[in-house]
Structure formats: C-alpha cells, structure tokens
UniProtKB/TrEMBL annotation:
It comes from Paenibacillus chitinolyticus. GO terms for molecular function: ligase activity. InterPro entries: AMP-dep_Lig_C, ANL_N_sf. The keyword Ligase applies. Keywords: Ligase. The keyword Transferase does not apply. Residues 368-447 form the AMP-dependent ligase C-terminal domain. It comes from the Bacteria. Pfam families: AMP-binding_C_2 (PF14535). This is AMP-binding protein. SUPFAM superfamilies: Acetyl-CoA synthetase-like.
Length: 449
C-alpha cells in the first residue's frame, strides 16, 4: 500500500501526543466530512469541546513537561480538575518574559520540526516557538473556518508575507495550500529574492485571485504597480485580500479596498499562538478561532476574569499543539468578547480589539491607541497613506504626506490639526511633507523620543 504524505506525518508524530489529541482530530474531521465546521456549532457545543480539549492538553503537559507540571501542582488541582473553566483560571499566567528567559521551558515534544522567532517589533529579546510535524500538518489543520476563508478554495494565492524567521509566511502557505487546495505564489515581503516589482510580475503572470499581505506592504505594492504602469483594477483578477501582520484601522482597510478594488478582511494572530481570529465581511470584530484556542479576557492588573463586553487583556491557550503548547498566555493585547449574533451568520464569538498595551501613545492628556489616531487622520480627505506619530515628553508631532499634488497643504494642515487636537484634547504639531520614510518591512508608524 502506498504511504501518503499525511500517513508519514502521523508515523513521525509522537505517540503520546497522538493518543491525547487524536479524539479531537477525529471529531473535527468528522465535522468537515459532514459539510460542517466549528463555525456552525452552538456555544454549548464549543464549550463542551473546549472542556474535552483542555483536559487532554493539561494531562499531556503534566506527563511531558516539568515546568507545566509544577504550575499545575501549585494550584493543588489535578489536570482533570484544572480543565474545568471555573478552576482553569487558577493556573499561573505565561508571559513574554517567561518565553524570553527560557523558551525551552515549555517544550513538550523533542520532535520539533522547525522553529520561528519573533520579529522584534515589540522590543526585548526574541521569542522562539517550535512546532512538530504533527502540529503543522495534523493538529493545526484539523479545525476549519470555511465561511471566513471567503471562497478562496482552489484559487491562486499571492502570499506576500515574510518567509524568513517569522511564522507568518509558512503558516499561511500551509493554510491555503494544504487546507484550501490553492496554488500558492510565495512572493514574500520585499526580501532579497522577492522585490516588489518581481512580486507584482509573478502575481500578474499567474492570475492571482487571493492576496494575503500586511497593510503597509499592500500600499507599497500598489505604489510599485503604479510605477510599472500596472492598473490594479484592470490588470488583476483579485477576488479577496486578507490583511495580517500589523494593525490597521477601518479607515486604512477601506483605503486598501479602494486601491486594490477588492473586499478586504483581517486576520489576528501571533507567533506564540498562531491564528486567533478572522474578520468577516461585516467588519464587526474578529471571529475567534475557537477550534484552535481557548480565549479569556482578564483585568490587566489583577488578572480577574472579565465579563463579555468588558475590555481587558487577551489571554490565550492553544488547544491543538504538542511541540510547545501555550497555556494562559498574556498577549499584551486589549479587547473584549461579544456573544451576540453576527449578521454574517458565523456563530463563533467575536473579539473586539482595543490595541496593544505597550503600543499606547503616552500623551499629556492621556494614553491613546495609534490605531485610534490613524482612524482620525486617514478619514480626512487629502491625507496620503503614509504618516508618522512622533511622541516626545507627552507631546505629539505628526508627519503626513498629501494624497497628491493638487491638495492645498495649508488647508490640509489646518484640518488635521483641528481634528487631532479635538481627539486628544491637547495641541499637536503637524507637518505636511513630500515624503515619509518607509521601507519594505513593517511601517514605522510611531516614533518615541
């Protein structure tokens, strides 16, 4: 009998992990076979799955990892007892500093197949997260979210995310190639062999229909297309664009929709956890990837659980991972969970993000999310797509480009100044400049002096 790629992966995965997670893989696969997914389940069914998955996860880490075993023992609970959501909150939090100090502390399987590292945009030492083949091609691909994938099956996908060091490029490569039966164009993000001009030529030659890309790079590629004489509306057959890798205000997303002439939705994820949430076309929050993770919202200081609708810190636990599972990880992101129905019909709960705690702009009048200020700025007609917020001693300065040469810069400056000052309740300095510095990497939107 021929040995398939899937069976090879199963043979190479750890037996103890396979025993623990196999019932959940079979259950998730059975949903797919019946034309269903986690998206179709009631919250009671999702809660029951979470209880089963947490029980398996905690028993697995208790048997394979001393670090997690000690953390469970501290509570005086057994893994079975700790899997009860009411008691699960007694487990200690996992923090970025824990992972920076000793990333190997949470390794539960020696069979790591590859390791990714953080991009360094949040500061501090890098964080490393490893995955087994079982993680990558069996556990991570078992939960499906077909409606949120926006009919991308069997399309040609331009993957304009970084493939080196970061997890994003390879993660989306697997999602589209292995789960959506797509042909993937690994055009990267401005690397040595994936310059913007070359990426655009590849996308055009192979009739790309789906694009996954960071917000700032979506604007960069559009600018390069214009220089090459390409018409994004006429020359490309793009059906859907997914944004990820950076935050984007609704105003920036709407601009990208107009630039690329296609619907745009956003993915929320991280190196440590992977996929966390997917936005639908209603743009009313991120539908939680409840097949992959167990999500909590806690008070940022006390750690107490927050009720639905109350903003707190997002805390995540990976349910389907055996290499380096993440348990009660404090993301540093602020948000709240909405239980109400979404007009799109997807039944998964929605997460409303409110920015990252470490990214808040500390002004004399208070703390403000950069995305809040981006929304105020980009809603003003005549502003270009590139800007910088510069913060020094609680004062705010803004550098911004005009959208084109026909814009009256004096009027634009006055309008920006009035709107932003009304938003932050303090004065600010505004300069409309010819060019705001940027590169092929993540946009440097905020500078703290």
């Amino acid at each position: 009998m021929a040995v398939t790629a899937r069976s090879q992966i199963e043979l190479m995965s750890g037996q103890k992990a396979a025993d623990r997670f196999e019932p959940h893989v079979r259950w998730l696969n059975s949903l797919t076979e019946r034309g269903m997914s986690v998206e179709n389940l009631s919250q009671a069914e999702v809660d029951a799955y979470h209880r089963r998955a947490l029980r398996s996860l905690l028993q697995f880490v208790y048997e394979t990892n001393e670090y997690y075993k000690q953390r469970i023992d501290i509570t005086g609970l057994t893994p079975e007892e700790a899997s009860n959501p009411a008691l699960f909150a007694q487990l200690p939090f996992l923090t970025k500093e824990d992972l920076r100090n000793d990333p190997r502390c949470i390794i539960c399987s020696p069979d790591l197949a590859h390791i990714h590292t953080s991009t360094g945009t949040t500061g501090g030492k890098p964080i490393f997260i490893g995955h087994t083949l079982n993680d990558l091609y069996r556990l991570d691909t078992a939960p499906r979210y077909p409606s949120l994938m926006q009919n991308t099956r069997n399309t040609v996908v331009g993957n304009a995310l970084p493939y080196e060091m970061s997890s994003s490029g390879l993660s989306f490569h697997r999602v589209f190639q292995y789960m959506q039966d797509c042909c993937v164009l690994p055009v990267g993000k401005g690397g040595a062999y994936s310059q913007p001009d070359k990426a655009l030529e590849c996308m055009l030659a192979w009739d790309m229909q789906t694009l996954v890309i960071a917000p700032s790079y979506a604007v960069t590629l559009a600018e390069h297309a214009q220089k090459l004489g390409m018409d994004l509306h006429r020359d490309f057959n793009l059906q859907h664009l997914f944004l990820t890798g950076e935050g984007a205000s609704p105003a920036l997303r709407e601009r990208i929709e107009r630039i690329w002439s296609t619907p745009v939705t956003t993915w929320y994820g991280s190196l440590e956890v992977g996929l966390i949430g997917i936005e639908c076309l209603e743009h009313q929050g991120y539908h939680l990837a409840e097949g992959h993770n167990y999500t909590e919202i806690v008070h940022p200081v006390t750690g107490e659980p927050q009720a639905p609708g109350i903003v707190g810190e997002v805390v995540l636990t990976t349910l389907m991972r055996d290499g380096m599972p993440i348990i009660r990880y404090k993301t540093g992101d602020l948000g709240c969970i909405e239980d109400g129905p979404c007009p799109c019909g997807c039944r998964l709960r929605r997460l409303q993000l409110r920015g990252r705690m470490g990214d808040q702009l500390a002004l004399n009048s208070g703390n403000f999310s950069p995305l809040y200020l981006e929304q105020q700025l980009l809603q003003i007609g005549g502003t270009g797509n590139w800007y910088q917020f510069i913060v020094e001693n609680g004062e705010l300065s803004i550098l911004v480009e005009a959208s084109d040469s026909s814009v009256d810069r004096a009027e634009l400056l006055t309008e920006i100044k009035l709107r932003i000052e009304a938003s932050i309740q303090q004065s600010c300095d505004v300069q409309v400049v010819d060019y705001v510095e940027r590169d092929a990497g993540k946009a440097r939107r905020v500078i703290r002096l």
